[in-house]
Design a protein that fits this description.
It contains 16 helices and 15 strands. The protein is of the alpha/beta class. Strands 6-5-4-7-8-9 form a six-stranded parallel sheet, sandwiched between helices. Strands 10-11-15-12-13-14 form a six-stranded mixed sheet, sandwiched between helices. Strands 1-2-3 form a three-stranded antiparallel sheet. It starts with 13 loop residues before the first helix and ends with a strand.
């Protein structure tokens, strides 16, 4: 951490750049606080519940139920309780193990992520029952944040939870994007792709969404349980074919998707469905707010912030190479800006698993960038998940500089071999370069930083 009041980036060694990178990252994470995000969009005033520009007369609402899922949904539920208090009749939220918050009127159900488990399925079935029993005079508030797709599994018979778990693992391992994964999951589910809104109809539905997906589309966030679904059975089959998975998925999944594509199973609800006439979807936060806050923090610390994009996708190590190349250009020519500079990007990349190591896309990003920046002075790279987790690890991400590879070699670590084995966690762990925040109770995708210091 830097000393209070020091704002000049000035001539600085890598250690100071590292401290400042972590400050900037944490400022970005805090800006995505879901509690404040909900309260910015939801309030009670003069007997009305105000959600963005829509007003609901509380006198016309009999019961209010709160349901949902996601890594940040417990904190979102706490904000809803703050706004509505005793007006809430009850509800249930599925959350990732450990991502909890103290609640009084809404029940929390901890369950598995990224691979769904039986706790998640039991909670999803209870959420469906709450939606079904809601009447025309009731309001169902649905809270959706990152991880909701896996945390709210309700496999459509005859697909079993185990078979859905297998499909999720196959899609994650092949490098499919979140949009592609969700297209498949919606069509082997009883709750995703607008089906929760259809279950709740004719009750009114207010969905508060904290986006963890590129583009912030309502039908993609959490697999869009309260939004018209743009994907189709045929599109889900096309995803399987694209990655050579049609014959590898369980027979029940393949047969359901093929029957749906042939018109033998009803599609998920599309635009124009009556359920959506009584449904309001509100985006309360996204990756952009974290990136904007990081840029402001970088500016206060004396860097010129350059936001590359908040919608970056693609193979992680290739995206890392582009970031490293921009840093090299800045050092060599001062283009597109002279140091001190802070490159910032958001979004969510993908990792194609080729090895058997342990890691996540953020750790892999930093390892790939560190290889390209080996020996380059005055550059620090940090990448982390805003939710505090990166893949199946206890780290949010990692940090590196131009001396990282040399340090690694001195203790017998082979960076290129470990990158090939997708073993970034075991590369950074002995170096003390993992970023560990613990659960942050938010999730707006990833935040990547490249700091380029001023020459001495």
């Amino acid at each position: 951490m830097t000393r209070r009041g020091r704002t000049s980036a000035g001539p600085q060694p890598e250690q100071e750049l590292r401290r400042k990178a972590q400050v900037i990252f944490l400022r970005g994470v805090r800006a995505a606080d879901p509690y404040q995000a909900v309260l910015r969009h939801l309030r009670v005033e003069d007997g009305k519940l105000i959600a963005d520009r829509r007003r609901y007369s509380l006198a016309t609402i009999r019961d209010i139920y709160v349901v949902g899922a996601g890594k940040a949904s417990a904190v979102m539920a706490a904000a809803v309780e703050r706004a509505l208090g005793r007006r809430i009749r009850g509800g249930l939220i599925n959350v990732k193990y450990g991502h909890t918050a103290p609640l009084r009127r809404i029940e929390l159900n901890e369950c598995g992520h990224p691979v769904p488990d039986s706790n998640g399925e039991a909670g999803a079935r209870r959420i469906m029952e709450i939606a079904r029993k809601a009447g025309e005079q009731d309001l169902v508030i649905c809270l959706i944040s990152g991880g909701a797709s896996a945390l709210m599994p309700a496999p459509a018979p005859p697909v079993t939870l185990e078979e859905k778990q297998q499909v999720t693992r196959l899609l994650l391992a092949c490098g499919a994007t979140i949009h592609e994964i969700n297209a498949v999951r919606k069509h082997i589910s009883d709750i995703k792709g607008g089906q929760l809104a259809r279950l709740a109809f004719p009750a009114r539905v207010l969905a508060l969404l904290l986006s963890d997906v590129i583009g912030d589309q309502f039908d993609v966030i959490g697999s869009g349980p309260t939004a018209p679904d743009a994907s189709t059975f045929a599109g889900a089959l096309a995803v399987l074919d694209r990655y050579g998975l049609r014959e590898r998925v369980p027979a029940s999944v393949r047969e359901r998707l093929e029957r749906g594509a042939a018109g033998q199973i009803a599609e998920t609800p599309k635009p124009g469905d009556p359920a959506f006439e009584r449904t309001q979807n509100v985006l309360v936060g996204s990756n952009r707010c974290a990136v904007d806050a990081a840029a402001a923090a970088a500016r206060r610390l004396g860097f010129k912030p350059l936001v590359l994009s908040t919608v970056i996708e693609g193979e992680t190590r290739e995206v890392a190479r582009v970031h490293a190349a921009i840093a090299r250009e800045i050092l060599a020519s001062g283009r597109p800006a002279r140091p001190p500079v802070c490159l910032i990007s958001g979004g969510e990349t993908t990792v194609t698993l080729r090895g058997k190591g342990l890691g996540g896309r953020n750790q892999e990003f930093v390892l790939a960038a560190a290889i390209d920046l080996a020996g380059v002075p005055r550059v620090v790279v940090l990448s982390g998940g805003t939710d505090g987790t990166d893949g199946p690890t206890d780290a949010a991400g990692a940090i590196a500089d131009g001396a990282t590879l040399a340090r690694a070699e001195r203790i017998g670590l082979d960076a290129r071999r470990m990158l090939d084995d997708n073993d970034s966690y075991h590369f950074f762990e002995p170096l003390g370069d993992l970023i560990k925040t613990g659960p942050t109770n938010t999730n707006v995708m990833d935040l990547r930083l490249v700091l380029i210091g001023k020459a001495e």
